[in-house]
Amino acid sequence: MRTAALALFVALLIASNIYTYIYFTSLNGYLRFTLQQLALERKRYFGEYSILMKYADELQDSYLRVVKANKQLEEFLNSLQRDLRSIPYNYTTMPYFEFVGRYMFAYTNEMRNFVLNVTGGWDGTDEDFMSDLYKIHREWRSMFVPTEEAPPPTREFLFIHIGGFDFGRVEVYSLKEGRWIILDYLKELPFSYEIKSITVSGASEVFRSRRGLCWDYAITLVSLYNAYYDTSGRSLPTVYLSIEGRDLHHAVVLIKLEGDRVAIIDWDVITPVSNGRMGFVPFEEAKRLHEEYWGRSLFYKGYMRSRPYRTGLFNSTEKFYEWLLNELN
Amino acid sequence: MVKINVSRLLAVFSIALALLNLAMLACFISENARLREAIEAERSLYEETSRLCAEERSRYEELYKVLMVILEENEEIKEIFMSLNGNVVVPQNYTAILEREGP
To answer: Most exposed among A168, A185, A320, B60, judged by the fewest C-beta atoms under 10 Å?
Structure first.
């Protein structure tokens, strides 16, 4: 009986040992796992923290570079604005090529009055319109004295010139986008800026001086025609053409009526003038007459037109003709 | 003789088992306590690191925003310079005649 009781007690002790072992082994295993997980998470955060510190240092450097650049640029800008404010008259600013394009063909009130005096205004008929076109050429030609050299431009304008732009680059990591971003910024103006005088030439100058090269004559004639079109309310596509031939570089005016019917105005009107009216003929005929006028073959090399200002070059007569038909409107 | 030996053997065995049980319990409890302490220490470090990381992230984002603002300012200054560069100063009395030549 006692032996049986002892055997039972031993069995209970064995069971207790096994239970204790299993319970604590699993509990401690869980604790070890938790510890391991925490350590891993801490390491991950630490890694992230170290990277953020490094990125933040780079970000700080970038920030300081841009701040320095901005400070210098603001000083330049303030200086430039001070200089512009000291200009002693009211003004606007306009990009150079836009200005040149507008100024070249711009007409003055004096030119408009000239056109009105010469034509007496348009009476609304085709005949009078063609007659006026011819009269404008005739009067302008009679006033204009061709010279060997272009008259020096007399009109001066101020021009804002910034010598150059030096750009820098910052590379920053965007946490939001999870990627590196490269951004350009204006680092400096290495050659500062200047406000200098430039001289320009245009129809208004030529009209006042009434002398110059074929170039001067032609752009002024285009400008006078523009003045007439504005006062009459009717217009035809009118352009300055540069032409080339043997020992010839020259400028003329072309007016398009419709299709390929044109009038070409050189020092004289090339296309037929009947009853004092500008005549329009197909381009082929106009070119033939023009070549007869100069006694050599001609090549229509390029054009300039206003409203808006446009220029172009042609590498063949076919290309010129294509432009005349399709683009000159 | 055999009967006495079995009883004693069981008694000795049960004493040994009881001692083993106690020793194992003590060992596991001590290990358990050590792990709990280690976990607490690790948790404390983890929380500190996590806090530092969050702070650094917040500082980074703040700095990033500031950088974007000054880059924006830089862009504005650049635009002003670009818009002024190559411009002609046109006196007001020329404006009217030049406007006629506009597109």
So the answer is: A168
Per-residue model confidence as pLDDT tens digits over A188-213 = 998 889 999 998 889 998 999 999 99
Residue B77 lies in a domain: yes
Residues A22-41 have pLDDT tens digits of 999 999 999 999 999 999 99
Of A6, A70, A91, Cβ closest to residue B11: A6
Q: Judge whether B17 and A18 are in contact, CB under 8 Å.
A: no
How would you class A63 by CB atoms within 10 Å of its CB: exposed for 0-12, middle for 13-18, buried for 19 or more?
buried
Asked casually if ipTM beats, i.e. exceeds, 0.90, the reply is no
Is the whole-model pTM more than 0.90? no
CB contact under 8 A, B42 and A204: no
- Tokens representing residue A287 in the block: 């070119």
Best mutation target among B3, B79, B89, B93 (most A Cβ atoms within 10 Å) is B89
Domain span at residue B39 reads: 2-83
